[in-house]
Amino acid sequence: MKKLFFLSYCSMFMALAISCSTTDDDIVNQENTENWEHIQLPNTESSKTLGVYNALGYGYNVLGEYASENSVASPIIDIEKFKTEESPRLSKENILSQEYKEDYGEDAAAFSKIISGRVSATEKLKVFGQTIPFSSAVLSNKKYDPAYIYGSYNLIIKQKRFRLNATPELLSNYLTSSFIKDIEEKTPEQIVKDYGTHVAVDVYIGSALNMIFQAKTTNANRENAARIGVKKYITGNSNDIDAIEAAKNYEKKLYYQTRGGDKTLAMAGIFNLEKITPSINHSSWQSTSTKENSVLVDFGNNGLIAIYDLVKNPVKKAELKSYIDQYLTDNQVAF
Asked: Fewer CB within 10 A of the end CB, N or C, for the chain?
């Protein structure tokens, strides 16, 4: 198993003396000052009740977080009807696998582009901006600060995979009555607010430990600077040359959050790497991952379909496509 560096439990609770915060404003104020070591964040996992197949068939807003139930919207596909009439096309697989994913970006846009490339429906976009959790990432004009580099290191435990093996044309015959009604009666803006931009058709559920490194750097190779930051503070695989390069990074922070597993052992926070070298044992939480406490953790490569591709009415489809295309262009990660 790869070695992950975090703050030990004892040290973490000592650090909490300066980090107890319960509101977004408190977190922003602490993160934007220099004299803190650790900010404990509240558990932001969604408490919404999803279907038997988790987010399968539900709407999803790709401007939110990547593969997070926080970004799941209202159901679009009538899964029970689909199961009754197209049972062989509803795939249910027990996976039970563990993997590590690393991504690096020279800035927020590049980082977002890489994450967006995990799914074919978003590979040409720079979305999933809320995956970047730092308040310092976004400027007052809602644009992203290009000064920061990013690297992520994610431990993903996959328990199950649910998939709809069907074309958009076939799926359009299995829309929920609410979605059909809303397509006819609501504006594209209202539809996106209720249902998001896409529908999930291939999902993995399980548990995940997500870590994101943020820093500024004087290194000309900014993507490599992010990679070295992850090696130094998360995987512990850095060498003497890496140490020299890592010294070019400053204003360094590390965000971490567990998802799924036993919620009583959930962890989330931000470390100020200018003040502390984090080290934590996450094995207690990791050992609690089961099928029963699984959450959305990933999509298949073709796991999302634009919701307008499910609309049969050509006029409504064109209106919705025009709105969503502009909505994503206007709100994707940019400077």
From this structure: N
